[in-house]
Write a structure and sequence with these properties.
Keywords: Coiled coil
Pfam families: MptE-like, TPR_19
Structural class: alpha/beta
Shape: globular
Protein name: 6-hydroxymethylpterin diphosphokinase MptE-like domain-containing protein
Strand content: 5-15%
Low-confidence stretches: 2-6, 526-531, 829-836
InterPro entries: MptE-like (IPR002826)
Strand order of the largest sheet: 11-10-9-8-7-12-15
Length: 836
C-alpha cells in the first residue's frame, strides 16, 4: 500500500509551527517545536567552535530554531536530508540558503559541503558532532534510518583518518606513562620463529569456527591473539603464546581485561602507547613496539614494523618480522556474519546481540557471496591486502580459512582441513620477566633522560610565560598598536630561543597543545575575530605553548615518581607512603597483589594497617576486573536495539532483498531478548512470505503480531500497512477496511485512504466525516479538499461542494480540477438536504 497516494502539505499546530506531518507526525503537537528542541538538544547544539552534522531539519523548523536562538561563535551547521524532502523544503524556501554558516544538502553532496566548512580543522579541535533531528530519531520516514547509519559510519572513519595524521596527546601521554614498564623491546623477536606456522586470532565470528581445529593442533602452532578475545579463549581453555594490544584508550582495558587471567608465561606484545591499565597491571613478560620515549633519545631502540590502524595490522606485521613461513588468520573477517555479528562469542558485541544498524555497504567474501561491512572495515580490507602482499614478498603465506571472511588481496582462502601442518615443535623463544639488575639499569638510564626532558620542559614553560607577559605589555590598551618595542624585540628572541635551544621538546610541546594551536587557524570565518586580533592571537599562541609545556612537565614528574615507585616495589620493605599513592593515582590496583605474590616472606611481616591498605587495593582491582555494565557494552546494545531491526526490515522489503531478510530473521532468532524479539521476527516472516508470493502465509504472520497487542505496539503500523496492502490486492474490502481503520486511529496520515475505502465499500457519509476530521487538522490540503468536493457532488450535496470549491479557488484560482468541479455544481439543480 502506498502511503504517498495523498501527499500531505505543511500543517500548522496551535503554536504556529508549520511542518510536514509525514515527517514529524505528533512530535510538536503538545508543547511546540521550541520546547521540544530545548528539551531534546539542550545546550549541546549551541556550543561554540563546533561543526554540527545534523540528520534532518524537522521540516525546516530546526533551522528556524537555530536562527532564532542565534548562532554560537565559530559554529556551523550541516544538515543532510533525503533528496525528496530536500526538494520540498527548497521549494518552500526553508533552508537558509543565503546563510554562510548553515548548509542543507543530500547525502551525495555532504562531503563536499563538509570540506567547504573545514571539517578537518574541526576534527583537530574535537569539534565535530553528529546530531539526529527529531525526524531522524522518530524515523517516520524510513529514509532517515539508513541515512543516520551511513553518516555515523562515514564520520567515524573520517575522524579516525584525520586524527591519525596529527598524532595525539593521548599517545604521547601513554608512552611517557608506560616508559617505566617498557623494559624490553620487541626487536628480540626478529626471525625467532623461522619455519614455524602461526595462527593469528582476531575477534570476528569465524574465530568460533576455527577454535576446535586450533585446539586439536595446538602443539604444531604458535598462537598470536589480540587482547580483546581473552574471555573467549579462557572459555575454551586455549592459552596463546603472545597477546597483542595497541590502543591507548581505557576502552582497550574495558574489552581486554580478561587477559589478566592468562598464565604468566604468555608474552604481552604492546605498542609503546598501549593502555597503561593493561601494561601497568600485567603479570607476565612484556615486549614493547615503537619508542621508549616520545622524543629523540638514545634509549629508543630500533623497532619492528608495527603499522596500524588496528591491532590486527600490527600483529600481522610483527608475525612477518618473526620469520613465520605461514600465518593463518582466524576471526579476522572484516565483515558481518549472516546473523549480523561482527565478533565471536565471549565479546560485548556478541552479548548485546546481532547488530541491526547496518548501512548498505557490502563486500565479497571468500565463499563468493556478499556480506555487510562498514567504512572502517572496508578500509581495513585494503590495508590488510597491502600488508599481506609484503608478507608474501618476504616468503610468508597468509591464509584465511573462513568462507565467511572478506576476500582480501594477497590472502589465500584455504579450508582448515586442507592445510598441512609441520610436526610438533619444541617451545619457541623463552622470554622471561626482567630481573632486578636489568630493571635497575633501565630505571637509572630512564631517570637521566626524564630529568633532561624536565629541564627542557620547564625552560619552554618559563619562556612561554615570559612571552605572555611581553604580549600583554607590547600593545596599547585597545590592542591596536605596539607601544612597548622592547617587549616586541624580547618576544622575537624568545621565539628564536625556543627553536634553537629546545627544538625537540618545543615541537613535542606543540603536539601536546595542538588542539589549542589549531584553534588559532580558525575553521570559522575571519570576520568573526575581534579588532584586537593580533594581541589575542599572540596570547592564545603562547598560552597553548605554556599549557603544552605544563602538560609535559606533569607527565615527566609523574613518570619520575613512577620510577621511584617501581624501585621501591623491588624491595621487601618499600616506602608505602610513596608506593600506595602512586598505585592509586594510576589505578594500578593489581600491583598490590603482584607485590604480595612476589614477596611472600615480606608479606608476613606487614603491619595490620599496611595489609589492610593492600587488601583494599586488591578488592578495587577485583571490582575493576569483573565490572560488566561497561560503556562499551552499552554502546554495543544500542547497535542491537530491536527498533533498528524494524527499520532494516522495512528497507529490505522495499528493495526486495529476500536473502538479506533471511539473514535478519536468523539474527532475530539469536537475539538475547527472545520474547521482545518475537513480533519483529513475525514481521520479517511476513515480509519474506510476501516476496515469495505467498500472501496467505504473510497474513498469518501479521495477524499473529496483531494478536500480541501491547507487545507489538512499536510495529503495529508496519503490520497494518501490509495487511491493508494484501487485502486490497485480493479485493478483501472488509479486512482492508479493518486495517485502514486501525491505521487511521494511529495517525491522521491514513485518513484519506481510509475515507476512500469507506466510500468504495458503500459508506460515503462515514467517508465525509473522516475527510472533514482530516481537514480540521490540515485545512490547506488541496488533494483531500478536491476528494471531498467530488464526494459531495456524488451525494448530491451541491451547496457543500460549491462552498468548498469556492474556498479552494480563492487560494488556487488557476486550479483546473476545482474549476471543473465547480462547473458541475452549476449544472446540478437539486441537493439532498439531509447530507452533512
Amino acid at each position: 500500500m502506498d502511503t504517498a497516494t495523498a501527499p500531505l502539505e505543511f500543517c500548522v499546530n496551535v503554536f504556529g509551527d508549520e511542518y510536514i506531518y509525514d515527517i514529524n507526525r505528533e512530535a510538536f503537537a503538545r508543547i511546540g517545536s521550541a520546547a521540544v528542541f530545548d528539551g531534546y538538544f539542550g545546550a549541546e547544539l549551541f556550543e561554540e567552535h563546533r561543526l554540527n552534522v545534523v540528520v534532518g531539519t524537522d521540516s525546516g523548523l530546526l533551522i528556524r530554531h537555530i536562527l532564532r536562538k542565534g548562532l554560537p561563535k565559530g559554529t556551523r551547521y550541516l544538515f543532510i536530508e533525503p533528496p525528496h524532502v530536500l526538494a520540498k523544503l527548497e521549494e518552500a524556501g526553508l533552508l537558509a540558503e543565503d546563510h554562510e554558516e548553515i548548509a542543507c544538502v543530500s547525502h551525495d553532496n555532504w562531503r563536499m559541503a563538509a570540506e567547504r566548512f573545514k571539517i578537518t580543522e574541526y576534527f583537530y579541535i574535537n569539534g565535530v558532532s553528529l546530531q539526529l533531528s527529531i525526524a531522524a530519531r522518530d524515523a517516520n520516514l524510513s529514509e532517515y534510518v539508513e541515512l543516520s547509519w551511513k553518516l555515523d559510519d562515514e564520520l567515524t572513519q573520517l575522524r579516525w583518518e584525520t586524527i591519525a595524521n596529527i598524532g595525539g596527546e593521548n599517545f604521547i601521554a601513554c608512552t611517557v606513562q608506560n616508559c617505566a614498564d617498557n623494559v624490553v623491546s620487541a626487536t628480540l623477536l626478529r626471525d625467532a620463529y623461522q619455519g614455524r606456522t602461526a595462527v593469528l586470532m582476531g575477534g570476528g565470528p569465524s574465530l568460533d569456527e576455527a577454535l576446535p581445529w586450533i585446539a586439536a593442533n595446538r602443539d604444531r602452532l604458535v598462537l598470536l591473539a589480540v587482547s580483546r578475545i581473552a574471555r573467549r579463549l579462557l572459555e575454551v581453555g586455549l592459552t596463546p603464546d603472545f597477546v597483542f594490544s595497541v590502543d591507548p584508550t581505557d576502552l582497550s582495558f574495558d574489552i581486554s581485561r580478561e587477559m589478566m587471567k592468562y598464565p604468566d608465561n604468555v608474552v604481552f606484545v604492546c605498542a609503546d602507547h598501549a593502555n597503561p591499565l593493561l601494561l601497568g597491571q600485567w603479570h607476565g613478560p612484556s615486549l614493547y613496539l615503537g619508542a621508549l620515549l616520545p622524543w629523540d633519545s638514545e634509549l629508543n631502540p630500533a623497532t619492528l614494523p608495527h603499522p596500524g590502524p588496528t591491532v590486527t595490522n600490527t600483529a600481522l606485521a610483527v608475525a612477518t618480522a618473526m620469520g613465520f613461513n605461514r600465518v593463518i588468520l582466524t576471526g579476522i573477517d572484516l565483515c558481518f556474519s549472516a546473523e549480523g555479528y561482527t565478533h565471536a562469542k565471549g565479546s560485548n558485541e556478541r552479548a548485546a546481540g546481532p547488530r541491526f544498524t547496518l548501512s548498505g555497504m557490502r563486500t565479497q567474501t571468500n565463499g563468493g557471496w556478499y556480506a555487510n561491512t562498514t567504512a572502517d572495515l572496508a578500509n581495513a580490507i585494503l590495508s590488510m591486502g597491502v600488508q599481506a602482499g609484503k608478507a608474501k614478498e618476504a616468503g610468508m603465506e597468509v591464509i584465511n580459512p573462513s568462507p565467511n571472511a572478506a576476500r582480501v588481496a594477497n590472502v589465500e582462502h584455504r579450508p582448515l582441513d586442507e592445510i598441512e601442518l609441520p610436526a610438533p615443535a619444541a617451545a619457541g623463544l623463552r622470554i622471561a620477566i626482567p630481573g632486578a639488575d636489568e630493571k635497575r639499569r633501565h630505571y637509572d638510564a630512564l631517570e637521566a633522560d626524564l630529568r633532561n626532558a624536565k629541564r627542557h620542559s620547564d625552560a619552554v614553560k618559563a619562556l612561554a610565560e615570559e612571552a605572555l607577559d611581553c604580549n600583554g605589555r607590547m600593545y596599547s590598551e585597545d590592542g591596536l598598536s605596539i607601544v612597548d618595542v622592547a617587549a616586541k624585540e624580547r618576544m622575537d628572541r624568545i621565539e628564536e630561543q625556543l627553536d634553537a635551544d629546545h627544538p625537540l621538546f618545543s615541537q613535542l610541546i606543540k603536539t601536546l597543545g595542538i588542539r589549542d594551536l589549531i584553534k588559532l587557524a580558525k575553521p570559522f570565518d575571519a570576520e568573526e575575530m575581534d579588532e584586537t586580533e593580533a594581541k589575542s592571537t599572540g596570547e592564545a599562541y603562547y598560552k597553548a605553548y605554556r599549557d603544552g609545556a605544563d602538560k609535559l612537565v606533569k607527565l615527566v614528574d609523574a613518570a619520575l615518581d613512577r620510577l621511584e615507585c617501581r624501585r621501591q616495589e623491588e624491595s621487601d620493605t618499600p616506602d608505602w607512603d610513596k608506593v600506595l599513592p602512586r598505585w592509586k593515582d594510576d589505578r594500578h590496583f593489581r600491583r598490590a597483589a603482584l607485590w604480595l605474590a612476589r614477596h611472600p616472606a615480606a608479606a608476613e611481616r606487614l603491619t595490620a594497617e599496611q595489609r589492610a591498605a593492600l587488601d583494599e587495593l586488591t578488592q578495587q582491582y577485583e571490582t575493576l576486573l569483573h565490572q560488566t555494565d561497561t560503556t562499551h557494552l552499552n554502546d554495543a546494545k544500542r547497535n542491537s536495539a530491536l527498533s533498528a531491526s524494524r527499520h532494516r526490515a522495512r528497507s529490505l522489503l522495499k528493495n526486495q532483498q529476500p536473502d538479506e531478510l533471511k539473514k535478519l530473521a536468523m539474527a532475530l532468532e539469536e537475539h538475547p531478548a527472545k520474547e521482545e524479539a518475537q513480533p519483529y521476527r513475525l514481521l520479517v516472516d511476513g515480509y519474506l512470505a510476501e516476496l515469495n508470493n505467498d500472501p496467505q502465509a504473510a497474513l498469518q504472520s501479521y495477524i499473529a503480531i496483531i494478536d500480541l497487542k501491547d507487545q507489538a505496539e512499536t510495529i503495529l503500523e508496519d503490520t497494518l500497512l501490509r495487511v491493508a496492502q494484501i487485502c486490497l490486492e485480493r479485493a478483501d474490502g472488509d479486512n482492508a477496511l479493518f486495517a485502514l481503520e486501525g491505521l487511521a486511529q494511529l495517525s491522521p496520515i491514513y485518513h484519506p485512504q481510509y475515507a476512500e475505502l469507506l466510500k468504495l465499500t458503500g459508506q460515503p457519509q462515514a467517508a465525509v466525516g473522516v475527510y472533514r476530521d482530516f481537514l480540521e487538522r490540515f485545512p490547506t490540503n488541496l488533494f483531500v479538499q478536491l476528494r471531498l468536493a467530488r464526494l459531495y457532488l456524488e451525494l448530491g450535496a451541491n451547496d457543500s461542494a460549491k462552498q468548498l470549491l469556492e474556498s479552494v479557488l480563492e487560494k488556487h484560482p488557476d486550479n483546473e480540477a476545482a474549476q471543473r468541479l465547480l462547473a458541475e455544481t452549476r449544472q446540478i439543480r437539486w441537493n439532498f438536504s439531509g447530507v452533512p
